[in-house]
Design goal:
45% strand, 325 residues, mainly beta
Length: 325
Amino acid sequence: MQSRRTNAIYFALFVVLPLLVLAFAASGRERVRFTPRFSPGEVLRYRIESRTTTSGTTTTPITNPEGGSKSSQAIHIVVRLDVLDVSSAGEVHLRATYEKSSSESESDALDLQASSNADRYNRLEGRSFEFSIEPGGKFATVPDSAAAPSGQPADEPVLSWLQGLSAGSGLPQKGVAIGQKWNTELPLAGALLSGLLSRTESTYLRNEPCRPSALPKVSGTPSTTPPGDCAVILTRFQILRRGPTHSDATPEDYRRNGLRTTGTWTGSGESLDSISLSTGLLVGSTQNSVQNMDYEISSASTGSSIHHVGKVQSQSEIALVPDQP
């Protein structure tokens, strides 16, 4: 259950977050380039809201009459980013602080794992860590695992927003113009079936006035610069599997543990993102996705198996929020 929730939230955030630090150098129909821009002393604050609803049935060798068929989880996070330094070579040093972090879960059955997971998010509040980004967008410093609840790795939803600061992976490096489309295709990490990938198609729709929002603050002084225009980008994405339909779908780590996996896993969704042309900051984003799965995990030695049929729906919102005094 936890794996499905993690994949669902990560998938929803996966597409939009690489746009977080895209800086557009031009407007109109001119081609604009993706270049990170940070200034020492900037304070950025983002609110992340996410809700995931899971439904389905799981058949196991041991019948569980108390097993639930539907559950939901909501996550509420406010992250403060302080730009500590920008070197002459372009390396950026930042500090991330979870000013607010909470989660609640609902289920039609007793779910101890859900309560434990919510508690981990609640304990995250107040924690912070520092990291650096090289000019090319690559992380120069890996965040301390202590910043994640109970030592969760950085690909968990609580840290998945961080991947957006590495800007440029799979995105046009020579810039794009209004009306242009571009595609990306990346493997879906940690999936139960091998060969799963996320394929996206993005379109630079138009420029429009940015919604009212507090801009980054430098050295404690609020910015008086008007918000200006934002680029509006629509991204549609889907999960599909590469390879023949009936080919072996067992990932290598499952195979090493004497397990076999078969079945299907599909998904689709879209995000609508508003990005400041003057700062390159993500001002607002909404995302939704749905995944459908029908898979079986079996033991190669005993033949016992677990069969799951389910559906996961996710909605997420990311917003640049006013900086507090």
